[in-house]
Amino acid sequence: MHGAEKTGPDLHTLAADIKQWGYQLGFQQVGIADIELGEAEQHLLAWLQAGRHGEMDYMARHGLKRTRPEELVPGTLRVISARMDYWPETEDNPWHILEDDSRGYISRYALGRDYHKVLRKRLQKLAKQIEAAIGPFGYRVFSDSAPVMEKALAEKAGLGWIGKHTNLLARDVGSWFFLGEVYTDLPLPLDGATTSHCGSCRACIDICPTQAIVAPYQLDARRCISYLTIELRGAIPESLRPLIGNRIYGCDDCQLICPWNRYAQVTGEQDFRPRQGLEAPQLLDLFAWSEEDFLSRTEGSAIRRIGYVGWLRNIAVALGNAAPQPDIVQALRSRADHPSPLVREHVIWALEEQLRKRAVPVRQEKRG
Question: Coil, helix or strand for 95?
Fold first, then answer.
């Protein structure tokens, strides 16, 4: 029998089985949502109209397929939304790393293996398990890999609520988790959405280094450090460079400060544990990497997507923000003639920042 033809109590049993299978595959929560995203669509269109997506053209490229699942995958009736926790066990407190300008801060989600592959593989296994139980059915799996409103769908599926920082929050675990979806033609029973529990708290708004959370539930990506260090391919605006501090790949401040994250559990997923010593690396060590080093050390990591040029750009900014040190100046000079104009621009800026903080006139230093 075709999966979409199943009716009656069997679907309730199947929904319960799907959740159990999800847990067995390493997901901490699984919920089921319908595909009505009218409110999320209006929010997205207003965000795009305001230009707050910056250069992320892909956010608008697919028209309304992002908010209308049945247009992306014809026949879709439900979305199975799944959560997998990733909070890593590290030797040092993230705040300590952020306070040490000799080290680089990498968003905690990127310390382990690239989550896209991990989640998609598990979701595919889940779909195959459903297929083994009921026969062929229509489905497609996603994990931040297509025009999908994953947070809005997860909210509808009861996995949490979208907080003022625009991340999904769950009362029992906070926000340190990944999301993945199975679009399906199975008319499964729905899970109810949860209520919001942000209350009057505005910790995430106040902590944001660049004030990218322009109002509760409203993010201007053009100011967000995650956007600036990952999505943006060109030059980082000069006015924002000093605010980035030592964050060289992403930013976690709004999550680190969130009271709900006191309940976060360390992931049991081996793939999400820190690799290559990147949880608290020395900036000068990273800046000395060759392109071969970068490709080798970021193999299987989400970090690789920014490329070697983006990597040097980001580290140069962090070095410019560090306290003045002769070895930093020397390292920056070694990259001052880099073949990439983008790298050169940020290295020169960083070098000028270092010299300015040493109270050495740039022209005098250049003559020397």
Answer: helix
Per-residue pLDDT reduced to its tens digit, 179-224: 999 999 999 999 999 999 999 999 999 999 999 999 999 999 999 9
226 is in an annotated binding site: yes
Q: Beta strands 247-249 and 105-106: pairing type? A: parallel
Has 114 been labeled as part of a binding site? no
Buried b (16+ CB within 10 A) or exposed e, 55-89: eeeebeeeeeebbbbeebbeebbbbbbbbbbbbbe
Whether the predicted model's global pTM rises above the 0.90 cut: yes
How far apart are the C-alpha atoms of 112 and 108, rounded to whole Å?
8
CA gap 195, 300 in Å, rounded? 37
Tokens of 51: 């230009």
144 catalytic? Reply is: yes
Cα Rg, the chain, nearest whole Å: 22
In the predicted model, is pLDDT for residue 285 greater than 60? yes
Relative to beta strand 213-215, strand 177-184 is unpaired
Q: Sketch out the chain's domains with CATH numbers.
A: 3-91+112-184 (3.40.109), 282-357 (no CATH)
Indicate the pLDDT class of residue 358, thresholds 50, 70 and 90: confident
Choosing from 17, 144, 253, 271, which is the catalytic residue? 144
